[in-house]
Amino acid sequence: MQDGRLNDKRLGWVGAGRMGLALATRLIEQGCDVAVYNRTRAKAEPLAELGATIVDSPAELGDRDIVFTVLAGPTDFKQVVAGPDGLLSADGHHPAVIVDTTTISAEASAVVRAEAEQRGTALLAAPVSGNPKVVKAGRLTMVTSGPQEAHELALPYLEILAGGGVTYVGGGERARLVKVCHNLLLGIVAQSLAEILVLGEKGGISRADMMEFLNNSVLGSTFTRYKTPAYVNLDFAPTFTPALLLKDFDLGYDAARELEVPMPVATAAQQVVQALIGHGYTDVDFAALIELQARASGLELQSESAPVSDGLGRAA
Prior knowledge:
Layout: E1 10-14, H1 18-29, E2 33-37, H2 45-50, E3 53-54, E4 66-69, H3 74-82, E5 97-100, H4 106-118, E6 122-125, E7 128-129, H5 132-136, E8 141-144, H6 148-161, E9 165-168, H7 174-202, H8 207-216, H9 222-233, H10 242-259, H11 264-278, H12 289-296
Parallel strand pairs: 1-2, 1-4, 2-3, 4-5, 5-6, 8-9
Antiparallel strand pairs: 7-8
Helix pairs in contact: 3-4, 7-10, 7-11, 7-12, 8-9, 10-11
């Protein structure tokens, strides 16, 4: 059901890749007034069919109240916000709030935050946990940091995007660190799953049975259930690639060095992710870690073709 109150603010959206498309769709389907920019205009056209306005540059979103950015990395983010044709380039027309979901370093975010504040625009760092399938299932989660007033202003829209919950962690770039810590754990758990599944299979236990037991135990989680089809049926269609995971490990190590925190387990997992890339696993999901683990263990994996659930409401 559409809520007319959501039209109180005019929204802008930058980034219509797989993730951006899924997220923006949720806002439009709730009746929000959304204008969209994407570098490749054709990728934004599906949103126009839902009722969004398509613009030709980020500068054209300068008169929007709140603008969301879903971008690949710090270079794109800085260009979109503070570049010659960016959100802050128009005289006298700047968004009240920019909400950025990009996974970047705290240092890169702070540079853009300072430029935005000089023009009276608040930056809300808002990394997300999930992928397009999780978005569609209404299970995405989000963490935010920045001015609390900006968080409160954007919250009705954040709650549409993140059906799984929005956590505010304070000012500055704290949300960036939360997301990096989250993704370090993601890599560690993914490799741990690969190891125990290969160990079990070499002892005669099917991966489907192992994951069923694990998912029903106190160690089961949304993540282990969601990854079950990948590990059991070797479905490595990319949701998050090894290269992206390695980038987040690098961000994590930068933070660990600065804060003087030893990370021995994360270091071991990072080396395996690096090896995965070295073996040519690039345009695949990082769950392919199980194939590398099996190879190192003298095991040739086969899909079990089992009707296992991903925990999001469907069997795979």
